[in-house]
Amino acid sequence: xxxxxxxxxxxxxxxxxxxxxxxxxxxxxxxxxxxxxxxxxxxxxxxxxxxxxxxxxxxxxxxxxxxxxxxxxxxxxxxxxxxxxxxxxxxxxxxxxxxxxxxxxxxxxxxxxxxxxxxxxxxxxxxxxxxxxxxxxxxxxxxxxxxxxxxxxxxxxxxxxxxxxxxxxxxxxxxxxxxxxxxxxxxxxxxxxxxxxxxxxxxxxxxxxxxxxxxxxxxxxxxxxxxxxxxxxxxxxxxxxxxxxxxxxxxxxxxxxxxxxxxxxxxxxxxxxxxxxxxxxxxxxxxxxxxxxxxxxxxxxxxxxxxxxxxxxxxxxxxxxxxxxxxxxxxxxxxxxxxxxxxxxxxxxxxxxxxxxxxxxxxxxxxxxxxxxxxxxxxxxxxxxxxxxxxxxxxxxxxxxxxxxxxxxxxxxxxxxxxxxxxxxxxxxxxxxxxxxxxxxxxxxxxxxxxxxxxxxxxxxxxxxxxxxxxxxxxxxxxxx
Length: 481
Fold this sequence. Notes:
The protein is an alpha/beta fold.
C-alpha cells in the first residue's frame, strides 16, 4: 500500500539547519542536511524544497544550495527524480535500516510499524557519535573491558539520579548493553527455580521473559485501565511473598500510567512488610510530555530497590545501553551475575552516552516536543476515526493502551497486518493470559504516518466488526516492545 508523498517546506528546513557552518557554506549545509536525514527529522523519501525555495529561505546563493544537494546525492542522502524533485534517502537504501526479524515480509517496506515502541534518534545523537569517535583512540591501548562501565559514565548516571533527588554514588551504578540485559542480570543474581516474582499485567513482555529465563515463577498483579489497585498489590504480596516485584511506575508500558509519590510510598510500605525487593524499570522516566514535575524515584521511598534505566527510549535504541542502580551491598552479587553473561558494554557507545548526559536538556526538549506532537496527532486521529474505542490519555511515555468494544484484538491485528499497519495485541502483554480487548499503539512515527495508520486501522476494524470476532491467526514476528 503506497503512502502519499511527504514534503517539507523550505521554512521548516531553514529552522532545522539553524546556523550551519558556512566555511564553506555548501559543505556546512550538506552536513546539516545529512544529519537531519540521519536523525530522522527529515524522514526517508521526503521531498526536499526546490533549490529556489531553499535559497530564499536560507538567504544564501543558489550555487550553495545546488552544490549542497549534489553532495547529498553523491553521499546517498538524496535522490533526484526528473520532474518530481529531490527526495531524502539513506546510504544503501531503506532495506539497510530495516531488520528482517521485525519486518519479515518482502513486501513490508511500505508498512507502518507500530509494534515497536521506539523512536528514531533525536537531534544531537549523530554529533555525539562524531565527538566520541575523536575520544575513542585514548581507550584503544587497553583491553576495552569495563564490567561495571566506564567510570565517567557511571559518574554521569549517578549525577542524573542526584538531580532527581536520589543520592547515588558512582559505585552503585553498573552499565549494561540495554535494559533487557540489566533485567537478566538482576534475575540471575537474585532468583532461582523456587522463587516467585510479582509482575504487573499488562507488562513489558521482553523484560518478563528475561526474568523467566532465570527459572523464577511469574505471578501477575493486574494494572487496571485507570491505574494501580494498591490494595490488591498489598494482598498479593502478603499471599505470594515473592522475592522480587517488577514494576514500571513511570509511564507504565503499555498503559502509560504514572504512579504518584503517595502511591509509591504506599507500595513501598507493602514491599517492606512482605520482605520483597522492588525491581523498578525507569526506561520511560524521562518522557514526561506535558511539562509536569515528575515524582521522586521509587528508590527514594524504598531504599532496597534495584533500579533499571535505559537510553533506548529517552535517546535512541541503537545506543544499546542500559544500567542498574542498586544498594551498594548488592553490587557484588550483580557483578558476579554479570560476568556470566558478558564483560561490559561497547566503549564507543558509552563515550557517546557520557557526552549526551553531560548536557541532556537540549536533546530531551527536542525529543519530547516531537513525541508530544506525534502523541496529539495519534490521539486526535483515534478520537475522530475510532470513537467507540476507549483509552486514558497518557501524560508521557510512548504509547496509548486502547480498549476495544469487543475481545477482538488478535483478529484486528491480523486484519491490520493485511492493511499494512503493525500493532501489538493485548495478549502479548499479559503475564498470565487474557487482555484480548486491548491493543497498544505507540506514537513513535511522524504525525502523517500515524494519521495514515489510524485510517488503515479504522478500515481494518470495520472488517472485523462486519465479520465478527473469528478471523485469521495473528502473524508471528519478533516484537520490540
